[in-house]
Design a protein that fits this description.
25% helix, alpha+beta, Muramoyl-pentapeptide Carboxypeptidase, domain 1, 3 domains, 26% strand, 5-stranded antiparallel sheet, globular, 442 residues, Collagenase (Catalytic Domain)
Length: 442
């Protein structure tokens, strides 16, 4: 009887053990050759930071890495995948929600810069020229003012023989050519001496880290923001910064004409037109004075007012009314904002009229609801933007309601947000060049 009982208990324990072993996640058996690959996936954000991983976790992370870099996504550590993991690259993560963004004053990135340590591999004049070219490239896309100083700058560039990760023990064998650290609200950009082996590689590296400063994430291999330095990539080797210069831009104003369904984007002295979907019409941008006669360049914002459906432009302390029939600013303008729009501030950031004909003006971190009927700011305003439009940033570049879909879009720097009516919050941010095709500078 005791023997039968022992056999029953043993059988029960065996079944119990087999069941729970089957149900529990199986840790991946990591060979020595695969440890470095897994460390790479962990270091650059493809795997969460922990001690053990299941096989499905590693396979999924590997496939995401392969898809990101445009190689066959087998999920295996094949030869091509390992080769990509050994290429020189940027030290920032590929998979991350973090956005590095330099300090911004109003609508201008007003920054100081210094080079704490120059490379000894090439003359300083070549290094300084590469930095100046990067500033020129990015100034075409963001309002940028850089002042060179001798020490304690917003941007501190250091050429180093060993760009490593602070406080991270890593066996990853891919050379890190650039890495950004933030300390006391100052940015320290480390550039590896190996990046100075050619002017092309040096220029690409500096352009890339400046892209991070202005809020860009890593993108695919055809982009300046590709994390991997692949000198065999034709796009990279021919002109490493052309992709960003032509196909990434911020905008300063946008609005839709509800009468004809046309939408216009503006930046400085140029404008784009959208006649259908989210596609910029061909042969754009064009110069502002080719259509918008009398409208000042570098204006703050333009919009179609729901109070009378006229088009208005704002710049500094003045505003202008546009005659759509005559295609020019009406006589008698500009006028002072404080006289025509009671209780509104000067230097407006953004304006739009919603589907209910409510009109909102944005300035810094505040939003003003305008009472169209009484022609004055509504009672209880201004309010914090985040209180009225959760997840919408302050210091906007522009906002508009799109004729094509009726949705409201907010723009700042190289990103846009879309208002989610159901959730009553903004979705985003999304890269502008991903949502609005062909919005490029010529």
């Amino acid at each position: 009887m005791v023997s039968i009982l022992k056999q029953s208990i043993t059988l029960y324990l065996l079944i119990h053990q087999l069941y729970f072993v089957k149900m529990a996640p199986i840790p991946v058996v990591i060979s020595t050759s695969n440890k470095t690959a897994i460390e790479y996936l962990k270091l650059y954000g493809y795997l969460p930071i922990k001690d053990n991983y299941t096989m499905p976790e590693v396979t999924e992370a590997t496939m995401i890495f392969q898809k990101f870099h445009g190689i066959a996504n087998s999920g295996n550590f094949d030869k091509e995948t390992i080769t990509f993991m050994t290429k020189p690259r940027c030290g920032e993560k590929d998979m991350t929600n973090k956005i590095i963004a330099a300090k911004k004053t109003k609508k201008i990135y007003d920054l100081t810069l210094t080079v704490e340590k120059w490379s000894t591999n090439v003359p300083q004049i070549f290094q300084k020229l590469a930095i100046k070219k990067a500033i020129t490239v990015w100034s075409k896309m963001v309002p940028l003012k850089i002042t060179w100083i001798n020490m304690y700058a917003d941007i501190n560039i250091i050429f180093s023989k060993d760009v490593t990760f602070k406080n991270v023990k890593s066996t990853v064998i891919s050379p890190v050519y650039s890495k950004i650290f933030l300390k006391n609200n100052l940015y320290f950009i480390y550039i590896d001496e190996r990046a100075t082996q050619s002017n092309v590689i040096l220029q690409r590296t500096i352009n890339h880290v400046f892209g991070h400063l202005f809020g860009l994430h890593h993108e695919d291999m055809q982009s300046l923001m590709s994390p991997i330095l692949d000198i065999n990539n034709p796009t990279f080797s021919s002109n490493p910064w052309m992709f960003a210069a032509k196909c990434q831009t911020s905008i300063m104003s946008a609005f839709s004409h509800m009468q004809d369904g046309l939408t216009y984007f503006f930046k400085e002295d140029k404008f784009w037109r959208i006649s259908k979907n989210y596609q910029i019409d061909s042969n754009y941008p064009k110069y502002l004075n080719k259509k918008w006669h009398g409208v000042p360049t570098h204006f703050d914002e333009g919009f179609v007012w729901g109070g009378n459906w006229f088009t208005y432009f704002f710049k500094g302390k003045n505003y202008y009314r546009y005659n759509n029939t005559a295609d020019r600013i009406e006589d008698g303008y500009p006028l002072l904002i404080r006289e025509g729009w009671r209780n509104l501030p000067d230097n407006i950031d953004a304006i739009f009229t919603d589907q209910e004909r409510n009109t909102y003006f944005f300035k810094d971190d505040l939003v003003y609801l305008y009472d169209n009927a009484r022609d004055i700011v509504a009672f209880g305003y201004p309010k914090k933007i985040t209180d009225v439009y959760p997840n919408v940033p302050s210091n906007l570049d522009t906002v508009f309601r799109y004729y094509f879909d009726g949705e409201v879009y907010f723009f700042k720097d190289l990103y846009f947000w879309r208002w989610n009516i159901k959730l009553q919050r903004a979705d985003g941010p999304f890269p502008i060049n991903k949502g609005w095709k062909n919005l490029c500078l010529l």
